[in-house]
Amino acid sequence: MNDQCDIGLIGLAVMGQNLILNMADHEFTVAAYNRTTSKVDEFLAGPAKGKSIVGCYSPEEFVQKLKRPRRVMIMVKAGDPVSQMIKQLIPLLEKGDIIIDGGNAYYKDTERHIKELEPLGILFLGTGISGGEEGARYGPSIMPGGRSDAWPYLKPIYQGIAAKVGKNKDIPCCEWIGSGGAGHYVKMVHNGIEYGDMQLICEAYSLLKDGLGLSNNELYDVFAQWNKGELDSFLIEITRDIFSVVDPETNNALVDVILDKAGQKGTGKWTSQLALDLGVPTTLITEAVFARCLSAQKDKRVRASKILSGPRGAIEKFRESINRDDFVESVRLALYASKICSYAQGFFQLQAAAEESGWDLNYGEIAMLWRGGCIIRAAFLERIKEAFDRDPRLENLLLDSYFKDAVESSQEAWRSVISTAAKIGIPMPAMSAALNYYDGYRSEQLPHNLLQAQRDYFGAHTYERLDKEGVFHSDWLSERREPAE
Question: Band of the pLDDT at 2, cuts 50, 70, 90?
Fold first, then answer.
């Protein structure tokens, strides 16, 4: 039977399959297609068996199964595979039909697809989806953007399958983001913040394990306690759980036998690159990306460890002199203050991108989209919503009264933790970047008057003055004082 499916999804990897199953659970009939058609058979015979899911074995059959306007969701690898799939679909679709890219697409690719399809009357949505396999199956965070006239046709489906928050669990973590590539840009910044959160947690772990000498059981207890307070979040929760898992082959803690070589898929790097393009200081996320890059140089680090030395005996002296409970609490405060700076940078970048692209973003609403379903979901995000409710034009989260007070009350512990890490030789790139950002942002005067003088000296790049308007250049060579012989 044709024209029976509410939506169709192309790409039966784990995310695609789980989204289809989620839609079927919410009483939508879904057409499923994969270029390797054996995956369709496996899916229908396995998890899709008995559900309102229709298998398709060609793009033509797939399109014929869809109700008008046809809603086609693509869940394949970002980049050229998406472009190639769109080319296959174009001859089969008609004016008013909708294509959705639900992968981790680069936002400018989304904007290019919108423009290419516009003359054909085909509507395009770039939709960020977060939550991993479990989120896709039981309720992700969904960030749709693109052609706003397509949104009403997807809204009941996406808000139906999204994670729900609120007292009655009736607020979907899915709302319209904005035009163009706004949806994918917001998802990209989400992923960048995720990089920062994970790196900050790893640095706290390193301080507690390598510095303080806590066992995995003790680390479990620490993170379990942290998850009951301000740091309550998905990432703190799963970090707690990780410390309890034993490797059945070695009978050691599984985390201790995992190679310290991190992977990445590029969205964090995009966040940093685009921050540079915008001229905004998203320093913590950038340090988190670089930390993964350094971790990937495992062989080089092993060789360097045989040659380079740190402060000898510092960790032993630290352990003898420190109150363990007090230091654990200081690390918690440092982690929370750093986390605030990370989100402040992420939202600052969103504001700059929105201004450049003409997007009308609702930052409090974005925070709530991340409150459930996604990887960075945390109770903390409600504080961000409250901050933007108080001031929708808030220039920086650090200027909100709650976050200002939280950072100020954590400041002594934050500085102590970072200085301690430096003294005992434990790297803290993200936490240090957070503190440096805070100190830089709160400084009325930075030393870049000297930098401007240097630029003008060697390159005649000019400078502005504090005491009068205009742009100036000095003949530094003729005005300089010659050094004494």
Answer: low
Q: What does the pLDDT look like over 269-294, one tens digit per residue?
A: 899 999 999 999 999 999 999 999 99
Spatial CA neighbour of 72 closest among 2, 124, 128, 135: 124
pLDDT digits (tens, 9 = 90+) for 159-192: 999 999 988 888 999 999 999 999 999 999 999 9
What is the distance between the alpha carbons of residues 381 and 404, in angstroms, rounded to a whole number?
Answer: 15
Pairing type for strands 98-101 and 71-74 reads parallel
> Is the CB of residue 483 less than 8 Å from the CB of residue 477?
no
121: buried, middle or exposed (CB in 10 Å: 19+, 13-18, 0-12)?
A: exposed
Dihedral of CA 357/173/340/199: which sign? negative
Q: 397: closest CA among 441, 434, 345?
A: 345
Residues in the chain: 485
What pTM did the predictor assign?
A: 0.93
The SS3 call for residue 353 is helix
Could you tell me which residues are beta bridge partners of residue 53?
A: 30
Q: Provide the CA 62 distance to its chain's centre, in angstroms.
A: 33
DSSP for 157-206, please give it: HHHHHS-EETTTT-EESB---BSTTHHHHHHHHHHHHHHHHHHHHHHHHH
Q: Which residues are tagged catalytic? A: 187, 194
Q: Could you give the CA distance from residue 226 to residue 378 in angstroms, rounded to a whole number?
A: 12
Torsion of CA 164, 170, 173, 175, to 10 degrees: 160
Residue pair 407/415 in contact by the 8 Å Cβ criterion:
no
Nearest to 71 by CA among 14, 151, 183: 151
Per residue in 123-160, pLDDT tens? 999 999 998 899 999 999 999 999 999 999 999 999 99
